[in-house]
Design brief:
This protein has about 180 residues and is of the alpha+beta class. It has one domain: Alpha-Beta Plaits (2-Layer Sandwich), CATH 3.30.70. The protein is built from six helices and five strands; from the N terminus they run H-H-E-H-E-E-H-E-E-H-H. The strands form two sheets. It has a three-stranded antiparallel sheet with strand order 2-3-5. A two-stranded antiparallel ribbon has the order 1-4. The chain starts with a helix and ends with a helix.
Length: about 180
C-alpha cells in the first residue's frame, strides 16, 4: 500500500487539492489598503512622531532637557540646544528623530517632563528616501499640526497623566496639562 501511495503521489495530490480549494473558494484575508482604511489598532497606538506646539509662542514645548535622547534604546533622537542669554534657559536649535531606527517603545514621550513629544496615532506615512523619514524640528511641528487637526476629541496621551499615580507625584507641567 505504501509503495502504491508513493508511486501515485497521493500526499502531493492531497496538498494540491487543499491549495486549489483555498484559492478558489475561501474568502481572502488580505485587505486592499486604498479600498478599505483600517481603524487605529488600539487606544495608545504609537505612530508618527510629533513635537507639541506651544500655543503662545508657536514654537515647541521642548525645554531641551535631553531625557528623551538619553532614554532612547535605539539612540535615534539627536538634540542640539543653545542657552538664551536673557532668560538663561535652554532653547532647542536642532531636534531630529530617525524614524527608521525608532522601535516605537514610547519611552521618550513617557519621560518628557513637559509633554513636548508625542507618538501620534497616525500610521499612514511613507518615505521614498531615507531623508524623508528623518524628522527635524519643523517636520515634527508640522506633524503635530496635521495630527491635531484630524482629532475629533481633545487629545489625551496616557503617558501625560498615567492612571493609578496620584497627581502630587507628577511634575508640575504634567499636573497642569489638560490636553490640547
Amino acid at each position: 500500500m505504501k509503495i502504491l501511495e508513493k508511486a501515485l503521489l497521493i500526499e502531493i495530490l492531497k496538498g494540491l487539492a487543499l491549495t486549489l480549494r483555498k484559492m478558489l473558494f475561501a474568502k481572502p484575508v488580505t485587505i486592499q489598503y486604498y479600498d478599505k482604511v483600517r481603524p487605529v489598532p488600539a487606544p495608545g497606538f504609537r505612530g508618527r512622531h510629533a513635537l507639541v506646539r506651544d500655543e503662545k509662542t508657536g514654537d515647541t514645548l521642548c525645554i531641551a532637557c535631553l531625557r528623551c535622547a538619553r532614554v532612547c534604546p535605539s539612540k535615534c533622537i539627536h538634540i542640539e540646544y543653545e542657552i538664551d542669554p536673557q532668560t538663561k534657559r535652554r532653547k532647542v536649535v536642532k531636534y531630529e528623530i530617525e524614524a527608521l531606527r525608532c522601535i516605537y517603545c514610547g519611552y521618550c514621550e513617557e519621560v518628557c517632563p513637559v509633554n513636548a513629544l508625542v507618538l501620534t496615532e497616525w500610521y499612514e506615512y511613507v518615505g521614498f528616501t531615507r531623508d524623508d523619514l528623518i524628522f527635524d524640528k519643523e517636520k515634527l511641528l508640522k506633524n503635530w499640526d496635521e495630527f491635531i487637526v484630524t482629532q475629533k476629541r481633545p487629545y489625551m496621551n496616557p503617558f501625560w497623566k498615567p492612571r493609578g499615580i496620584p497627581e502630587k507625584f507628577l511634575p508640575a507641567k504634567k499636573r497642569q496639562f489638560t490636553g490640547v
